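Milestone 3.1: sequence recovery, worked example.
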């Protein structure tokens, strides 16, 4: 059986480096399941792998789309599985990496057959949002499905609309519907995480935002301002700078909000991963010895 090593963890923890180290050890390739890194115009704000990192190991699904492209999680599942099958023809092991929880789930388990969007529900929810704001949708979801509310990116109104619509249609919690694994996969999945104290993680996130600003995040966001209504840009790092451009916030406050919202997102990711009992953790700032032990663990798992 072929092996898929899935490197997971919150934003800013160092997944890119670990994925490259593993890809080099196994002489294989990397599939990204970071849904923000699909967009070629958003390199800095999504901390996409650098040119040097991309040269260290072949990567797929990095900068493969434009922010103007519509791309659903269902399309990603199909494309990623197709790419995996191609890679498994030449490699025993492939690496999957990214912090988009649902996108990882789509690859390793499959998505459920959820109902199509209900136009009336969508219109009703859109009206609620237009008149009472996104906060009302957040409240509504928290009431209907507190478990999904814990992990959803609640700044993303489309995710909120989708979840509430499905709950109304099925009378079931969205978190329960997506918890049921659909297709069995014909490859073994080994999930690897990186662990750090909350202080270490938050410090890394804050420093990373400062680095992004030095690398030119402000200019990148300015160039994308004309697309600010698109879903791809309704995301941390860009939404805050658009408010600065609109004169709502000053720059220091916008940057502090990027840090705060990135920490919040990391907290949600941690909540999601904590519920899993199949993730093997490596310490932040791992040594060669730690890495060797990880390889031993992976080798044992592949032999089971």
């Amino acid at each position: 059986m072929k092996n898929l090593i899935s490197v997971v963890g919150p934003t800013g923890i160092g997944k890119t480096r670990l994925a490259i180290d593993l890809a080099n050890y196994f002489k294989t390739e990397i599939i990204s399941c970071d849904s923000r890194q699909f967009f070629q115009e958003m390199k800095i704000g999504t901390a996409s792998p650098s040119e040097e990192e991309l040269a260290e190991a072949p990567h797929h699904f990095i900068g493969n789309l434009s922010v103007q492209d519509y791309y659903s999680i269902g399309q990603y599942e199909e494309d990623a599985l197709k790419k995996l099958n191609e890679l498994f023809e030449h490699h025993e092991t492939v690496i999957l990496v990214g912090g988009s929880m649902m996108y990882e789930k789509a690859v390793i388990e499959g998505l459920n057959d959820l109902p199509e969007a209900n136009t009336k529900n969508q219109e009703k929810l859109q009206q609620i949002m237009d008149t009472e704001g996104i906060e009302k949708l957040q409240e509504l979801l928290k009431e209907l499905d507190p478990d999904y509310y814990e992990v959803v990116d609640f700044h993303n109104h489309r995710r909120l609309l989708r979840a509430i619509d499905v709950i109304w249609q099925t009378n079931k919690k969205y978190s329960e519907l997506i918890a049921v694994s659909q297709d069995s996969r014909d490859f073994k999945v080994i999930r690897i995480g990186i662990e750090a104290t909350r202080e270490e993680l938050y410090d890394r996130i804050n420093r990373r935002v400062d680095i992004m600003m030095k690398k030119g995040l402000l200019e990148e966001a300015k160039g994308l301002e004309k697309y600010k209504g698109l879903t791809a840009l309704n995301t941390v790092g860009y939404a805050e700078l658009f408010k600065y451009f609109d004169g709502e916030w000053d720059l220091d406050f916008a940057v502090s909000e990027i840090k705060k919202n990135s920490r919040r997102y990391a907290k949600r990711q941690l909540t999601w991963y904590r519920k899993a009992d199949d993730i093997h953790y490596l310490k932040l700032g791992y040594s060669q010895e730690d890495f060797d032990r990880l390889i031993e663990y992976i080798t044992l798992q592949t032999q089971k």
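The domain at 2-112+182-206+276-303 is CATH 3.40.50.300 (Rossmann fold). The first strand starts at residue 2 and ends at 8.
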